[in-house]
Write a structure and sequence with these properties.
heterodimer, A: 386 residues, alpha+beta, 3 domains, five-stranded mixed β-sheet, 11 helices, B: 398 residues, alpha/beta, Peroxisomal Thiolase, Chain A, domain 1
């Protein structure tokens, strides 16, 4: 199984179910399919529903799914463990999504983050870094051999050869060592991680030093302190302050928009007309900006009309009124209502079921809300006239 | 007849941070200070030499009111005259206009202008959605995203040609971005990916796909402006501001639905026409040696080229198709990579002017145009079609 950043794709999916958070998936009934290419890839599906989640490895992808993620194993692991920026991978086309994008964006609420298990550090891990940790400035003119004899579980034998300001590491113990460390592999790890005091270990006989004691005392200088690679690689965690701003706002409509909203409550769409250029404004505005004059005359237009433009939106953006991510795709449209001409279009939403069926030029009519309060929501959406 | 000015104004210092999706390593004043330090170093000045500071960004994006107060420690404005500009997407361009006006008027000899945004700290689409009028449009808007331009171009030029030209321009811009070490996004796209990207880049709105759209970036840009006398004294190669123009009109979200372009000339074409008329420029494509355009998406970049350069029919498509917009081409467009490569919004429009000035100086580095750059144009864009154009010159000879 191919590893990326020390993790396999299997590692991630094998913990998927235990990372499920029912509280983050209320009301969700979805199947997420994963098509992961490259070494260590494969096909998986994650089903979410009824407060439960199930993960399966499959030979072929399910025919029906809510959303599908298509990527390669390295990118998938990299994004999961936070080593590859998901948004950038998405923009560069290394990750593709099909189906309901909003569902993919909700996944971080439905599953806790995958944290790679910490693998215990062994004596071998540490001694193999000896050459990297070697500090030649403290080993000038030395021509010595240092033996490491690790006993017990995870043990082994190594010799560090220091000569001409250089250090090499060999497996096995040389004869005639200048100094030799004899210690259990377990205690050696604790000593190097600072969990076991060297003087205590030496005094109690758990660490034996044989040979040139003066050199033995210099060893902590000749070899820099061991730093576990995870810590060395881990990016410093920066402190950021999280704030959620939520403010109730109130906006005056004014007499002109007020009259327009009153009209909506009676299922009437009112435009106002510029006395100079004759253009209709929808929604009405207090003045005609180009003519710099008040537009006081109101006329009823529509309610039916002809589509001039449709914007079909796939981007999962927040609804500014609720803060909830909108379900995609959805469509907004511009309608030339009956009685209007040229650029006097009216902007509203298109009925979801009409999104892939409606075209510019089609006739539409408004669908009114049962309870109208004088707002944009008094019209639910426009639907195609069939 | 260009704007009346009491005296000429030269750009004598330019500083930009690296643009990036995230700068958690610094807070706002620290990030701004990076750009300010670079600009001061570039000009060979210290804080003491600055008479006045102009600061700008879009408050809703980071939800900090009067951020210029907090940022005084980064701009060095303590005890100096200071102004704040916040005109949405055009902020950076308006900062340049304001600094130019302040120096040209004789009020100040040396002015520092700083534009920034740290978009990771807020919610850009949420912020832009809140820009729309709360009585009606706010409920219908999806941030700055619309597929209207793509739809109109597809109707005018046919699906295949329009989509190809937009994606070709996107790849041209990425090629430029690869040469600019400050780019936030430089993907290494190649022309053999064109068909794949046209089909597989995720759709945002209609035919506006993710790859076409600009990013949300963190970053800051600072520029130093000086009177002609000071600029000649302090700088070997000051870049002269010839003229600038700002055109906007009523909030016109409904105009995105227009069919009849004749009836309502875009602010871009209107601004360009007026600016070129009063400066006696008959053929902008031939006059300018570089154009740094505020191109929020490849569709807009393509469509707006026709507006800004006063082109007709499919002349703008031909410029893309014939490689005329690439570095070394007839009119290099955005050698920096443009807004699709980096978009720290309050700095973005200023970066256009800064990059145009670097081209005139010959200091653009890897993305320097090989031939001499004497005349440069930079555009800013914001709101529902709000246009700022700035003309720069190498020589004081107009």
């Amino acid at each position: 199984m191919a590893e990326y950043f020390g993790t396999t794709v299997d590692d991630i999916f094998s913990t998927q179910t235990e990372r499920f958070r029912p509280e983050g998936a209320e009301g969700v009934d979805a199947v997420i399919a994963y098509d992961i290419s490259g070494a260590g890839g494969g096909r998986w599906m994650v089903a979410i529903g009824g407060g439960k989640s199930e993960t399966k490895k499959l030979d072929s992808l399910p025919a029906e799914f809510t959303a599908k993620m298509i990527t390669d194993a390295e990118t998938f692991v990299g994004m999961t463990v936070g080593r590859i920026d998901g948004m950038e991978a998405f923009q560069a086309g290394r990750v593709r999504a099909e189906g309901d994008m909003a569902m993919l964006l909700r996944l971080p609420q439905m599953f806790t983050k995958y944290v790679p298990p910490k693998k215990p550090i062994t004596a071998r891990d540490i001694i193999e870094t000896a050459v990297d940790r070697f500090q030649p400035q403290y080993a000038q003119e030395l021509d010595v051999t240092v033996g490491y004899d690790f006993t017990g579980k995870g043990g082994g034998q190594w010799t560090a050869v220091i000569k001409d300001g250089k250090c090499t590491l060999e497996e096995g113990l040389r004869d005639n060592l200048t100094v030799s460390n004899i210690v259990s592999a377990e205690d050696y790890v604790d000593l190097m991680l600072g969990k076991l005091d060297p003087m205590v270990a030496f005094g109690s006989g758990r660490l034996k030093l044989v040979g040139d004691m003066e050199l033995a005392m210099k060893l902590p200088k000749i070899f820099a302190k061991f730093v576990p690679s995870e810590e060395a690689e881990a990016v410093e965690e920066l402190i950021v302050l999280k704030k959620i701003i939520s403010v109730d706002m109130e906006y005056s409509t004014g007499p002109v928009m007020g009259q327009f909203f009153e009209g909506l409550m009676e299922k009437k769409i009112l435009a106002n007309v510029c006395p100079k250029c004759g253009r209709k404004q929808l929604p009405p505005r207090e003045v005609c900006a180009p003519c710099r004059c008040r537009a006081d005359e109101f006329v009823e237009v529509g309610p039916g009309g002809e589509i001039t433009m449709i914007d079909d939106t796939y981007y999962a953006s927040p609804d500014p009124l609720t803060g909830e991510t909108r379900e995609t795709p959805y469509g907004s449209l511009h309608v030339l209502l009956d009685g209007c001409k040229d650029n006097e279009t009216f902007w509203h939403m298109l009925k979801k079921n009409d999104l892939f069926d409606a075209q510019p030029g089609d006739r539409v009519r408004p669908v009114w809300a049962d309870e109208r309060t004088g707002s944009v929501n008094d019209i639910l959406y426009f639907e195609k006239v069939r | 007849m260009s704007h009346k000015r009491n005296r000429n104004v030269g750009i004598i210092g330019i500083g930009q941070t690296q643009y990036s999706s995230h700068r958690e390593d610094v807070n706002q004043p620290e990030m701004i200070n990076e750009a300010v330090r670079f600009a001061l170093e570039d000009a060979g000045l210290t804080y003491d030499d600055i008479d006045c500071v102009v600061h700008g960004n879009m408050e809703l994006f980071e939800m900090v009111h009067q951020p210029d107060l907090w940022h005084t420690i980064g701009t060095g404005a303590y005890g100096k005259d200071a102004y704040r500009v916040t005109t949405g997407g055009t902020t950076g361009a308006t900062l340049v206009c304001a600094a130019d006006n302040l120096v040209a008027s004789g009020m100040y000899d040396i002015v520092l202008a700083v534009g920034f945004e740290k978009l990771q700290e807020g919610h850009t689409t949420g912020g832009i959605t809140n820009m729309a009028d709360p009585l009606w449009s706010r409920n219908l808007q999806t941030g700055a995203l619309t597929g209207a331009t793509a739809g109109a171009m597809i109707r005018e030029f046919g699906e295949e040609r329009a989509r190809r030209a937009a994606m070709k321009l996107r790849i041209d811009m990425d090629k430029h971005a690869m040469l600019n070490p400050n780019s936030h996004r430089s993907f290494g796209l190649d022309y053999d990916q064109l068909d794949d990207l046209m089909e597989n880049s995720p759709k945002l709105v209609g035919e506006l796909r993710l790859i076409h759209m600009c990013s949300q970036s963190d970053g800051a840009c600072a520029m130093i402006f000086a009177s002609e006398e000071k600029a000649k004294e302090l700088s070997d190669k000051p870049v002269w501001i010839r003229d600038h123009i700002t055109i906007h009109r009523e909030e016109t979200f409904n105009l995105f639905g227009k069919e009849d372009a004749e009836r309502e000339e875009t602010t871009h074409r209107f601004a360009a026409r007026k600016l070129f008329e009063r400066n006696g420029i008959d053929n902008p494509v031939d006059y300018f040696d570089v154009f740094e355009m505020y191109d929020p998406s490849s569709w807009w970049g393509l469509d707006w080229l026709r507006e800004f350069m006063l082109l007709e029919g499919d002349e703008h498509l031909k410029m893309v198709e014939n490689d005329e917009l690439k570095i070394g081409g007839r009119l290099p467009l955005n050698p920096s990579g443009g807004v699709v490569a980096a978009n720290p919004i309050g700095a973005t429009a200023m970066v256009r002017v800064a990059e145009a000035a670097l081209q005139i100086r010959g200091d653009a580095g890897g993305h320097q145009i090989p031939s001499e750059v004497k005349h440069a144009l930079a555009s800013g864009f914001g709101g529902t079609l709000w246009t700022v154009l700035t003309m720069l010159e190498k020589d004081l000879d107009w």
